[in-house]
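Forum > Structural Biology > Help requests

Title: Can anyone predict the 3D structure of Retrograde regulation protein 2?

Hi all, first post here. I have the sequence for Retrograde regulation protein 2 but no way to get a structure on my laptop. I'd be grateful if someone could post the structure tokens.
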Amino acid sequence: MLCVVFGLSLLDRTNISAAYIAGLSSDVALNVGARYNIALLVFFIGYALFELPSNMVIRRLGARLWLSFLIISWGACVLGMGFVHSWVSLTVCRALLGMFEAGLFPGAVFIIGSWYRQYETAKRVSLFYMAALLASGFGPILAYALSLIRVGNGTYRQGWRWIFIIEGIATIVAGIISPFFLVEFPEKAKWLTPRQRNIAICRMQIDKEARQFVHPTFKESMRMLWDWKLAVYSMQYFVAASSVYSLSYFQPIILREGMGFSYALAQILSSPCYVFAIIMSMAMAWVSDKYRTRWTVLCFQSLSAVAGLLVILYAKPPGVRYLGLYLATFGTQANVPGTLSYGQSQTAKIERKGVIAAAMISIGAAGGITGSTIFRTQDAPQYLPGMWATIAMQLFYTLVTVCMSLYLKRQNRLADEGKGPALEGIEGFRYAP
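Reply #1:
Sure, ran it for you. Structure tokens for Retrograde regulation protein 2 below:
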């Protein structure tokens, strides 16, 4: 169910690009100046601000109650976008959408991190993210089908409205039924016996004295954020998120304007790239857990994205440039769950995992703002500044990942030699670079 609702959330935040080329741009004057970029980036303001508060609430209220409320609320925002008549109303709906969607992704990563151990997370986080990506990968085809709907002779003959209306209704329905299917945190899981619940909690606690989850106060949560390593993980996630958002928002436009495909073909050709990304990402996540290596997989994926973007930029035949889109989509998408697993794997205490996930994804929202602005309409059809900005960030990601992992390996070696204090204040804990 986490995969289903996250797939819907990805559809709901990126369907504006499909609606844009289906007539939204002219009907609400979204193509004037920087209005489209503004409508994209306001989403991330609330998205960034409400992630950490949401992860402080979710374990107290329970995942089923809190996430269901958020799902229904953002579904209502998407539904409302189908009835707007000005770009201002659309922008307001997008801002509210960001506020309500903020809690899902960090909450889901927190849930996964509360059930699975250090070298069990990469496969699970990747499965969660990629199963949802399967839904958003076919989003352009679904959007094309919905845009063909015509009702009456007035406003509702505009096909782009039905993209928002139908997908908004689907999200609201998912929110209504989600309490029956969403998973809870181990201490709240009623489908476990008391013995099973105790085992689920104990296997996650390296510190033998800490057997019960202690809800951190706001002050304690702020203290957890005061760690320079978290700044590095957040920087990595910023790059991963900005690259993903930039390609998600502008991939149909690149296919349409940059490669010269028709509207229908541009929507259809967006989907196979995501299928390739899902298969490759799951394979690389398996390698990461199986061989207990994080940095080699992350760097391989990042450099794949660089290679793909260079092919899109400088290859001549459309078919070859389209192949580059496969590599770019895989490299950028795979590093989102990979980077989250990297951050979670360096965290010893369960209480801190929720704060780490929320902080990383909050900084990722700033990456969303970057991703929604670096591809400017005046740079069409090649989008040269946006492409090179993304390439530079991916190379920076590789450099940061290598340096950080070498540092973590050195800390492990010193701990093995008995030099220095216990890592993360927990005896026996080792980082997972």
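The chain has one domain: 2-206+220-425. DSSP finds 18 helices and no strands in the chain.
Shout if anything looks off.
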